[in-house]
Amino acid sequence: MVFTEVGKPLLSKSYPLPELSEGEVLVRNMCATICGSDLHTITGKRQEKTPTILGHEIVGRIVKLPEGNEISDHFGNKLKIGDKITWSVMAFCGRCENCKKGIPQKCDFLKKYGHERVDSQRVFSGGFAEYTHLWKGTAIFKLSEDVAVTEQVWLNCAFATTMAAISRTNGLTNKKILVVGAGALGVLAIPVSREQGSDSVTVVDPNKDRRELAKSFGADYIFSPEEFFAQESGDYDVILEMSGNYNALIDGINRLSIGGVFVFVGSVFPMRDIGINPEQVVRRLHTFTGIHNYTPNDLAQAVLFLEKYCTKYPFDLISSPKSFGLDKCNEAFQFALETNACRVRIEM
Ligand SMILES: [Zn+2]
Ligand SMILES: [Zn+2]
After folding, report:
1. Given this model, what pLDDT does residue 231 score?
2. Does residue 67 lie in a domain region?
């Protein structure tokens, strides 16, 4: 299903399957979810190279491997035809300066699934298609057959990014956690906080359904922004800012405890500066940090966490109960925009 232009429906097109080069894998997609960035692209909030196949939260089965070329996943499992896998949203070179510095998401030769132009070199690079053609330099993860695809599909964007955000803190044990924004990323931060032994998890979101979702994942305190802003400044050791909302940012900074860590995650749009007082940063031992995308190790943490706790938390609630076939992709986008569901599934 090819995206060509804002305001036009995705077009159903057919292309021949590719020949594989060394290090590449062909995957038959099983399920893909509509991420917030896909919605931003189709509504014109962000610019995308076109034509393109959107969708980067994907799980599929390997249908083809290059001949005479052994490929292993991130954990060292030898991959074979039929394996259920997910993979990093990006392919990276491993040799450029940013890769060598440990930030492969900023590789000089970065390629991102669901964000590349369909051309003669590469067609199948997005999730809203029958196949994905994996680039060499993609971190692949063989997934457990014991966990449902519908609970694994958002691992490689939402959950991996949440893990990356948490990796910027000095751990959550005994800390008061504030999660601003209860989309998939924010909600997935709740079980991780609980399992790391946090003191409490407070969640703020304007949407009632999302507040309910946060509750079912075990958040201790849940507020609408109005209720929350009306409270006296609280004291939070870790603030995960997933909303990108200007007022929430200003408010959050005033609620950081001594030794607190503030993680910027949601600010992915141009925005006004916010004031930070250097003396306060020094005397109150504050840390301000940002995260964009993630490294393969963050996705590994997400995969392992889900396998360990899949029955303890209601991960099935992250995506909406209603799913769509690939041919109903346009309806799925419509549904996602109308319902404000965290994730809407396309099942192939
Ligand atoms: Zn995403
Ligand atoms: Zn690189």
Report:
1. 87
2. yes
